[in-house]
Amino acid sequence: MYADFILNKSIERQFRAFRRGFAMVTNESPLRTLFRPDEVELLICGSEVGTS
């Protein structure tokens, strides 16, 4: 229950806003077909490869 709160409930409002904004940018856009899910994750989260 605590983990659910920390990992889900505590960020629910912020994630909803992010998802709404992301959908506004990508809905009916070529971006939906240009990128695979793992590429979208890389665009959003970035990569630690090559950083020091």
TrEMBL record:
Biological processes, Gene Ontology terms: protein polyubiquitination
Catalytic reactions on record: S-ubiquitinyl-[E2 ubiquitin-conjugating enzyme]-L-cysteine + [acceptor protein]-L-lysine = [E2 ubiquitin-conjugating enzyme]-L-cysteine + N(6)-ubiquitinyl-[acceptor protein]-L-lysine
Annotated keywords: Transferase, Ubl conjugation pathway
Superkingdom of the organism of origin: Eukaryota
Organism, scientific name: Dreissena polymorpha
Name of the protein: HECT-type E3 ubiquitin transferase
Leader peptide range in chain numbering: none
HECT domain boundaries: 1-52
PROSITE patterns xrefs: HECT (PS50237)
Protein EC: 2.3.2.26
PANTHER family, per the entry: HECT-TYPE E3 UBIQUITIN TRANSFERASE, UBIQUITIN-PROTEIN LIGASE E3C
InterPro entries the record matches: E3A/B/C-like (IPR044611), HECT_dom (IPR000569), Hect_E3_ubiquitin_ligase (IPR035983)
GO molecular function: ubiquitin protein ligase activity
